[in-house]
Amino acid sequence: MPRPATLSEVPQLAAVLADAFTDYAWTRWTVPADQHQDRIETLQRIYLEELAMPHGMVWTSDTLDAVAAFIPATAAPTPAVLDRITALHADRLSALSESETLVAPHRPDHDWLLATVGVAQPSKGRGLGTSVVAAGLKVIDSQQATCLTETSDPNNLAFYYRLGFELTATVKTAGPPVWILTRPA
Question: How many domains would you assign to the chain?
């Protein structure tokens, strides 16, 4: 059963996300190989603590093995948080910046961003990812708001389609492609 996460659960949830994104094409492209998983875990923790928890919503399973973070489109990191994020991307920051320059013009206006979703490896395939995302989308639907998400894994497209997202754009970058999906109000 999905429920809102608490701040004290963020370290465990960031570890779940790091595990889920360790071999993801996008993070392999934009996060240095040196201490790769530690960097991803720290980045996920920053996004959860500094953006999703205070400004948006984070949903998890009772066993903390699935997490989905939603951030309002108007939320932005403070300069200090942005500096921490920049440092973690280190020598891959230019790859991230170049890709962002290509992707940004293709993002339609939206109210919410499904920023991240992940399930612990041993718990995959049990519907936990769907349940935590659906819980957040229920709140967004009650606001008659739109939601945007992005993926660099074509295998994720069917997951998002089942949740009501529609493909808006496919952007080729110097690294992995980015599929932009929106869920109408």
Answer: 1
